[in-house]
Amino acid sequence: MAVIAFIGLGNMGSGMAVNLVKAGHSVRGFDLNKDVVNAFAAKGGKPAASVLEAVTGADAVVTMLPAAKHVRSVYEGDEGIIAQVKPDCVLMDCSTIDVDSARAVGEAAAKAGVKFVDAPVSGGVAAAEGGTLTFMVGGPEAAFEAAKPYLEKMGKAVIHAGDAGAGQAAKICNNMLLAIHMIGTCEAFVLAEKLGLDLQKFFDISSKASGQSWSMTSYCPVPGPVPAAPSNRDYKPGFAAPLMLKDLRLAMEAAGSVGAKLPLGAHSEALYTAFTEGDGADKDFSGIIRMIADGRAR
Ligand code: NAD
Fold first, then answer.
1. Which superfamily, per CATH, for 169-293?
2. From residue 246, how far is each of 88, 94, 195, 243, 262 by CA, in Å?
3. Which of 11, 285, 286 to mutate to test the pocket of ligand 1 (most atoms within 8 A of CB)?
4. Any catalytic annotation for residue 156?
């Protein structure tokens, strides 16, 4: 079995790394936070003292880091992952970052003759632990084929989106659509209630009519119709509003860079900014329904 370096053992990375251990791989884990490295070691991982120690001689490297600056700092430069791994090693960055940074890291790897893919995920902490993530992968065909067997151990779907950066592009387009769907679904429930409709009845109708979406049928923002949805537990995340805001900012930044005018995407970003700066900082993104119901959304 392969030797894998896993950098970033946070909320998502910890579950993903354990799934690689369960698949029989030897997984060296590194994180700036020693507590999560120790927790990983207790689950069969091999603790590493630095990025360099983790990646030296590894067959594959997975990174799951907060943002582009962290990703670039571990991959680039003379001490970076690209310069330090053996030539046949495959590199997978599963963090959500901007398209341009993903392309820049992809180009640096290609220049060095190392296989790299951007492979952001859809699915939250439960999917990371359960091995049911969806991976959207950008990079050359050979890098995708080399990465696929590892990603399959952490997810239920691994889809090649295109060249370097295409995984990140697909991720932010999808999540912008999700934000728009969610806000629309919340507005529909708020109006339904004000018009005196029974909300379960409205759900029964709309979930089988043309207003149907994942936000409605899998993640309903009002309590009751979908028992597993965060609306049934006071909007405890789930998918936290600040993470949705991060993805919307990346989407709007990308839109600006290609001159795309997206009024609903821009308005969604404004609404999630207001929600996150208000009482939504520790709430699931579907909790925005309260701001809309209270008439605080503009
Ligand atoms: P997190 O903050 O819980 O984990 C990130 C980890 O990276 C932390 O433990 C931190 O100590 C570590 N880290 C930071 N810089 C480092 C460095 N230089 N070297 C080693 N370790 C370093 O974040 P998370 O929720 O696990 O999210 C990770 C990524 O996945 C983000 O890009 C996020 O947008 C994306 N994502 C998260 C979710 C979710 O539901 N949490 C869902 C989809 C995608």
1. N-(1-d-carboxylethyl)-l-norvaline Dehydrogenase; domain 2 (1.10.1040.10)
2. 34, 15, 34, 5, 17
3. 11
4. no
pLDDT at 251: 98
- Structure confidence by residue, pLDDT tens digits, 54-107: 999 999 999 999 999 999 999 999 999 999 999 999 999 999 999 999 999 999
The mean of the pLDDT values for the chain is 97
Q: Would you list the DSSP string of 178-213?
A: HHHHHHHHHHHHHHHHHTT--HHHHHHHHTTSTT--
Q: Which residue has 């029974």 as its token pair?
A: 198
The catalytically annotated residue of 115, 171, 246, 283 is 171
Its pTM surpasses 0.90:
yes
Q: Which helix (H) or strand (E) holds 265?
A: helix 263-277
Give me ligand 1 centre to Cα 13, in Å: 7
CATH number for 3-163 (one of 3.30.450.30, 3.40.50.720, 3.90.1580.10, 1.20.1600.10): it is 3.40.50.720
Q: Is 10 exposed, middle or buried (0-12, 13-18, 19+ CB in 10 A)?
A: middle
